Amino acid sequence: MTGNPAPGPTSGPADPRSAAPDGVFPLVTAPSGADTGASVGGTAVQLAELDARAAGYAAASRAPETWRAYRAGYARFARWCAAQTPPLVALPAAPATVARYLAAHADTHRVATLQLWQTAIAAAHRLAGHPVPIDDPVVRTVLAGIRRTQDRK
Question: Which candidate among 28, 92, 100, 148 keeps its CA 20 to 30 Å from the CA of 53?
Fold first, then answer.
C-alpha cells in the first residue's frame, strides 16, 4: 500500500479529512484547549489530539481509494437529493429517498455501480451515527427488482 503509513504508537495518524467522506469526519471533537487529564507516556493528552488519533485509525480502516469512491458516491447522491423538487434530505436519508435514487439510475447504470453508491451512502450514515437506509426492506427490494430486470435484458 502506498501513501501514509498506518497510524500507530510511533507514527501520527493520516489526516482523516483527506480520506473519509466530507462532512462525516472528523469524529466528535472537543472544544479547543480541553484537557482530559489522561496520560499517555507521562504527558497530558488533550481531547483534540485523541480525536485526531481516533480519526486517523478510522481513516486507516479503509484504503484511500475506497474512501475516495465512498466520497464520490455519497457526493453524487447528495447532489441528486439537492436537485429534486422539493429537495430531499441526504443525511440522514429516508429509505424512500434511496429507493428513488436507485430507481432514477437503474436504466443508465449497472447494478454493480448502484451497489457501490448504496455502500457509500451506508458508510456516510454509519460514520455520522445515523440509521442506515440501505438496510431497509424497501431499498433491498427495489435493488433486487433492478437486478432481476437488468439480468433479463
Answer: 92
